[in-house]
Write a structure and sequence with these properties.
By secondary structure, this protein is an alpha/beta fold. About 35% of the residues lie in helices and about 15% in strands. The chain has 5 helices and 5 strands, in the order E-H-E-H-E-H-E-H-E-H. The longest helix has 24 residues. The structure holds ligand FNR. The site of ligand FNR has 13 residues, from helix 1.
Length: about 190
């Protein structure tokens, strides 16, 4: 069975992040071919191109973690109708120095949850624009805009509602198939 290492980024660094809780519940629904590992960006300072001449260890490690993943999944809240600044900063680190964009040709997916009815839809569109610019092949469909409600995740950390769990399981199976398709034409060792 071919397995894929999916590096994931949580767009929120809040200790009680609902997106982190959601991500943990989501991964319980994943097909066995997908192996998830978090890529942390907490140690990154605010990016400036002044760092490019001598990229710090945290920046190099972050870039390597993106580059060595078979795919990237970003689970993010929407902040002020966009993505959180910390996440954007991390993506900027991965994109530089010029000519070494770590997202190039890495398949990606986006998903997120917020208490609002549109469930991060606008933030996800901003993220899609960024990933497009960075030449990351993105899963376009299905989209997943998840409204976070009390009781959505039960005490066992699972998605409580069966139809939501089915939708999310299908989302991850589609992501699996998407990764397999992309890596057929863009093999990771090429
Ligand atoms: C928010 N929130 C929010 N929600 C939303 O649906 N659209 C938005 O544009 C915003 N904007 C926004 C800005 C800032 C600075 C904060 C702190 C919050 C509310 C947000 O969805 C809520 O706080 C979630 O709990 C954020 O997800 P995490 O950080 O808990 O994973």
């Amino acid at each position: 069975m071919k397995t894929y290492n999916v590096g994931y980024l949580i767009g929120s660094i809040a200790k009680d992040s609902i997106n982190r809780k959601f991500a943990n519940a989501l991964f319980k629904l994943a097909p066995s071919q997908l192996k998830f590992a978090e890529i942390s960006y907490r140690d990154l300072p605010i990016y400036s191109y002044d760092y490019d001449a001598d990229y710090p260890e945290a920046g190099r490690k972050f870039k390597q973690a993106i580059k060595s993943s078979d795919a990237i999944l970003i689970v993010t809240p929407e902040y002020n109708r966009s993505i959180p600044g910390g996440l954007k900063n991390a993506i900027d680190w991965a994109s530089r120095p010029w000519g070494t964009n770590s997202f190039a040709n890495i398949p990606s997916g986006v998903i997120g949850t917020s208490p609002g009815a549109i469930g991060t839809a606008v933030g996800q569109q901003h993220l899609r624009s960024i990933l497009g610019f960075l030449n990351s092949p993105q899963m376009n469909s299905p989209e997943a805009y998840i409204q976070f409600k009390d009781g959505m995740i039960n005490d066992a950390g699972e998605i409580a509602d069966a139809s939501t769990a089915k939708f999310l399981g299908d989302y991850l199976e589609e992501f699996h198939q998407f990764i397999a398709r992309v890596l057929t034409v863009l093999p990771r060792d090429a």
